[in-house]
Amino acid sequence: MLKSANILRSRLFRPNWYRIAPPTNRSFHTSKPRFIDPYASLGVSKDASEKEIKKKYYELAKKYHPDVNKEAGADKKFQDIQNSYEILSDADKRRQYDQFGSSAFNGQAGSGPSGYPGGQPGQGFGGGFGFDPFGGGGNFGNFEDIFSAFTGQRSNRGQRARQVEVYKGEDIEVLVQLSLEEAASGTTKKVRYSVIDECKTCNGSGLKEGAKPQTCGHCHGTGTAMHVIQGGFQMASTCPTCGGSGEVVSKSSECSSCHGEGVKHDIKTYDAVIPPGVRDGSRLMERNLGDSPGIRKSAMIRTQKGDLIVRIKLKAHPLFKRYNNDLLYEAHLPVTTAILGGKVQIPTLQGAKLKINIPSGTKHGETIVVPNQGMPINSRSNGDLKVKILIDPFKPSNETQTVLLEALADSIGDKDARRKYKPLHEVEETDNNEASTDAAAPKEGLFRKLIKKVLPKD
């Protein structure tokens, strides 16, 4: 990766890359069937820990690997070390050996003609041990493969044919805010964002027209640099001078537009299509609209843009709340409508008015469901609109309201309600006493009695 790419963007480029390489096929052969004590071979005690066994194996493997030890018998010694580690690194096979010794790997244990499990050193029960320090086990592999097995790093020796590497740029995330109405109907939003883009003048090569790159003098075109590690062994890493491309661009050959970088800083706009029913927090991915990697293209390096990710943020709505595909609306009702029932008008998200029936005796907090008036689920169906009933508290503001409410309390036998006037039965007793003095007087109705509670007598 080019160091100068960090100037274009404050964050460090860490492209995810993969290699296009032909598969390798290795096989292990032995000329003489034999079996040795794995503990003696590695020089460890029978109660040695897994860590101690691994450390000893690595130490001996470095010493006797045929790539670094040309003495006679080193290859056979290395073969014994490998086979011993294959047994002791597997808990089940180590337990078998501790219990039965070498007989654990004879014919009764499923061995082949060599006396090793499966018939050959390097193979286990049923055809192969699970451990293979060389990524396929062949011709002793090479020393760098052993290093890779223990460090988790891959290495390429400079003598090998270079492999094509593909670098991917970073993803870019932009935030788009939507109203609930826009989320329900779907919309198109224009987004504007900063991007590291491939230079259009040189098509990402970093070269001016007619110029050619030079072979990197540090890695001699291999794209890798060799480092000597403890013990005198070598490890390969990406060349810091050319960023792994194996090529460098001289000042005289640089593209005047991108100054040899192959990429440029740019501002782009994009019409993001938002589908109906999109949810808060959704992430819509637009392929190959993100950053280009901060590295020049070459014969051995290919580049791939990252993606543009549009993250949805829904604004709060003054009337509706969203729950998955349903909408919630809170309807405030007077106590009379809740008691007697009736029809009320409520809004919809589309701006229309809808009348719904309120059953008599509706309780505070009850929910009435209006089907198919929520958020879109697909082109054929929607969620529901749920109307939550909230009964507004009522306080009488005049004498008439007070009288009527007290009369209502009398009619339902509510003796706990606070009163301003006499209960109705006391008014009736007074009327009966007055009526006994004039039997011919007409009988008064309920409303008249209520009025008597309010108006002073003549």
Automatic annotation (TrEMBL):
Gene Ontology CC: cytoplasm
PROSITE patterns: DNAJ_1, DNAJ_2, ZF_CR
Every J domain range: 37-101
Keyword Chaperone: yes
UniProt-listed Gene3D superfamilies: DnaJ domain, Heat shock protein DnaJ, cysteine-rich domain, Urease metallochaperone UreE, N-terminal domain
Keywords of the record: Chaperone, Metal-binding, Repeat, Zinc, Zinc-finger
Domain of life: Eukaryota
PANTHER family in UniProt: DNAJ HOMOLOG 1, MITOCHONDRIAL-RELATED (PTHR43096)
HAMAP family: DnaJ
Name the record gives this protein: DnaJ homolog 1, mitochondrial
Organism annotation: Starmerella bacillaris
